[in-house]
Write a structure and sequence with these properties.
This protein folds into two domains: 2-78 and 177-285, Periplasmic binding protein-like II (D-Maltodextrin-Binding Protein, domain 2, 3-Layer(aba) Sandwich); 85-170, Periplasmic binding protein-like II (D-Maltodextrin-Binding Protein, domain 2, 3-Layer(aba) Sandwich), CATH 3.40.190.10. Helices cover 37% and strands 20% of the residues. It has ten helices and eleven strands. Strands 1, 2, 3, 4, 5 and 11 form a six-stranded mixed beta sheet that branches. A five-stranded mixed beta sheet has the order 8-7-9-6-10. α1 packs across α7. The active site is at residue 146. Keywords: Lyase, Menaquinone biosynthesis.
Length: 287
């Protein structure tokens, strides 16, 4: 049996979407999976090194790893009228060159932020440390991601929603592409298809049995939030739209890549569908 490594972030939506496999609810006869949890910027950096068989990534990173990784159709997180938040202390006023903490240089929120605030002075921190950095005055502002957007100090206020930056840039009613999954291109196609199908099934099973799985995650202290916050968070980022991408989601990703290309972040503009695993391979091989 071949063992493959799945790297994902420690935030609740990634844990939720993977753990149907971890708990044995989804399996394949020829493959087994081992997982590890790393913060999103570490995942992005490791993807640039081609470190893991399957890995969570920021969608904004994908054009830079397209030659090494295929884009998966599942375990995706999009914002629909919400997303990362730029926060600051109450009553403070940000200068044009304000100092800001971001969760990583390759994240989608960093791409949008850099376009909107080209003169800001950026430092990078683990996403769990950003709120405190703003409170301590280490930075003037910070972009909160993951569960941090739901519960943060009353001393802080939202300066700007990154969703609003996205709307201004894309000029269409499209969801905001945040996180996705990628799989090594060096993997045999038939095995890659089995992997993707297992992950699709895991996300589907997790969504279908959200109550049971959430209870198990909470009882085992596998997530950092309480029951009410977990339910709300999963409604945002691990929902029916996470199981398998739609036409609208592909359009949104393509728009993100086009925006990044126009602003000099990528060497060319690409289309997401051109980089998927060719699921028709098995049917053609057996025909």
């Amino acid at each position: 049996m071949k063992t493959l490594t799945v790297a994902h972030s420690p935030d609740a939506d990634d844990i939720f979407m993977y753990y149907a496999i971890k708990f044995g609810w989804v399996s394949t006869p020829e493959l087994s999976f081992e997982n590890l949890a790393l913060d999103i910027e570490t995942l992005n950096v490791e993807a640039l090194k081609n470190s893991y068989d399957i890995t969570a990534i920021s969608f904004a990173l994908y054009p830079k790893i397209r030659s090494e990784y295929a884009l998966l159709r599942t375990a995706v997180s999009f914002g629909e009228g919400y997303g990362p938040k730029l926060v600051k202390k109450q009553a403070s006023k940000l200068k044009r060159n304000f100092k800001v903490a971001l969760s990583g240089t390759h994240t989608t929120n960093a791409l949008l932020f850099k376009i909107a605030y080209p003169e800001a002075r950026i430092i990078y921190k683990n996403f769990l440390e950003i709120e405190q950095a703003v409170l301590d005055g280490e930075v003037d502002a910070g972009v909160l991601i993951h569960e941090s957007i739901l519960n943060f100090s009353d001393e802080l206020v939202v300066e700007r929603e990154l969703w609003d930056i996205w709307k201004e840039l894309c000029k269409e009613e499209l969801p905001l592409p945040l996180g996705g999954m990628a799989l090594r291109r060096s993997m045999p196609i038939s095995r890659a298809i089995v992997c993707e199908d297992a992950l699709i099934q895991a996300v589907n099973v997790a969504h279908t049995h959200q109550g049971v799985l959430s209870k198990m995650l909470l009882e085992r202290n596998l997530v950092r939030v309480d029951q009410a916050t977990l339910k709300k968070y999963l409604g945002l980022y691990a929902n029916e739209h996470s199981i398998e991408m739609s036409d609208l989601q592909y359009q949104a990703i393509d728009t993100l890549f086009e925006i990044g290309f126009k602003h000099g972040f990528y060497d060319q503009s690409i289309k997401a569908r051109d980089y998927l695993i060719p699921k028709e391979y098995d049917a053609l091989r057996n025909s």
